[in-house]
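Changelog-adjacent note: as of this version, every example in the card shows the full chain rather than a window. The one below runs 264 residues end to end.
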Amino acid sequence: MTMSVAEKLGFSAKGPETVNAETWQQWCRQHPVLARFDNVDGLREWVRSAPVEESGEVLWALAQLAAEDGGDDLYAARWLAWILLGGITLLGRRLRGVGDLDHQLAVALWLEVRTFPWRTRRRVAGNIYRGVRVRVLTDAGRSCRREDPGRHLLLVPSPLDLQPFCPEPPDEEDPADELAALLDWACDNAVIPAARRALLQHLVQAWHHTDAQAKRGPHQGLLSREVTLEVARRSGLSTRTVRRHTAAALAALSAAAPHYSRSA
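Full-length structure tokens:
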């Protein structure tokens, strides 16, 4: 699977063409986290065993360089795709039955690498794998998730993270990523302004760290007293203003919900 997808992307058995010293030094100047390496060639093996936090920073640097609205660097895009091929193999095993699967995976991986939203996302591997899965299943006319009538989206960040090299691709979307995708879409389509997007994210983070006893009270949720007080303290706004803007943002999101598409 890996080599076939790699071939579709034009890679040899050793990976993409290496970058010259001038290009590498330019990358290192833009992203000092890369300066610890002599060149890009050893990154794939390093990412296999590096701590998640360290490898995540390196992958984000490559993602910023590779994105069309970032560095727009095709060398960086090729190397990021090469590094992530291990996870694509695992994902492919769960997508059997899709026609011309290797081609579909290669196309989806390339598109995700080139359009990664580096300004608002940090977890490169997990988000790209999810994006590839959605693209492949959508193009095949299949559901992007298992049917589960009892499942509800909780706007609470998950403490779990994916291993950046060969994670086990999830069957379900991470609620934190679902929220980020929803808010990205809402801002892009002028449903809510960026300031309210940031406010909602602060509220979710504050709720996540709220005492468990408070979450069971009669005034729980994003507009609970504890949560709004914490966000007001961080933002310098009054609790009344926090509640007013939150209520307006949630009302706008609710009204726009019929038009929302995760794959858009």
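Structural remarks: The CA atoms of residues 207 and 227 lie 6 Å apart.
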